[in-house]
Design brief:
Blueprint (H helix, E strand, L loop, with lengths): L1 H10 L1 H17 L2 H24 L2 H5 L6 H33 L6 H28 L5 H24 L6 H26 L5
Length: about 200
């Protein structure tokens, strides 16, 4: 699986460079929408890797390699988890930069909100990946865009709602519930992906 992850990351060097440029800009601008966007963007990178696989006819190569369906599918999920974790670190240090450079207050509620955003991004990944494994990225591109755009609007709305109701929310409890839902949804998503995956798509 490690080899598959390295293959995907090498094939997406261009997107990775844009990702880090966006992250640096986000740290300077200190914009909540950008903080959310970089996390959602990180969760969409496995779909980009799948698109590259389709264009390169990678499915034919897989047939000649000693790879199991679980390893092939698992590498895409693992990639999403890794990129979202990296984006969380970037956002965290971006917040610290804003606290030091612009003398902005650092609220733990903001970090809880960022973690909830990451969970939502992983829920989006859990919905997207089975669909892409089933019908392919090229055929499912419009559906993928609709899901991502809808998720972005949902996350922005949640950010605004959390901002208005911070005093009323028990953030640790809300985070625990959201994490639990995210874990269950991703387990179900992986099992569905194993069933619908078409190696020759």
């Amino acid at each position: 699986m490690r080899g598959l992850l390295i293959k995907d990351l090498c094939s997406m060097m261009k997107q990775t460079k844009y990702f880090f440029i966006l992250a640096v800009g986000m740290a300077f601008l200190q914009n909540d929408f950008l903080f959310s966007y970089v996390i959602v963007y990180a969760a969409s990178l496995p779909i980009t890797a799948l698109a590259y696989d389709e264009r390169a006819k990678w499915g034919r190569m897989e047939e000649t390699l000693p790879l199991t369906r679980t390893q092939i599918i698992g590498s895409k999920y693992a990639m999403g988890y890794i990129t979202v974790a990296v984006s969380l670190l970037i956002v965290f240090f971006g917040r610290l930069f804003g606290t030091v450079a612009y003398a902005r207050p650092f609220h733990m509620e903001n970090m809880f909100a960022i973690l909830i955003t990451a969970c939502i991004a992983l829920m989006v990944q859990a919905v997207n990946l089975p669909l892409m494994f089933w019908i392919g990225v090229e055929r499912g591109r419009l559906l993928f865009i609709l899901i991502v755009v809808g998720s972005a609007f949902a996350i922005v709305s949640i950010w605004e709602d959390l901002g208005m109701n911070q005093a009323l929310l028990n953030f640790p409890f809300v985070l625990a519930v959201v994490v639990g839902i995210t874990v269950v949804l991703n387990i179900l998503s992986f099992l569905i992906s194993e069933r619908v995956y078409n190696r020759n798509q």
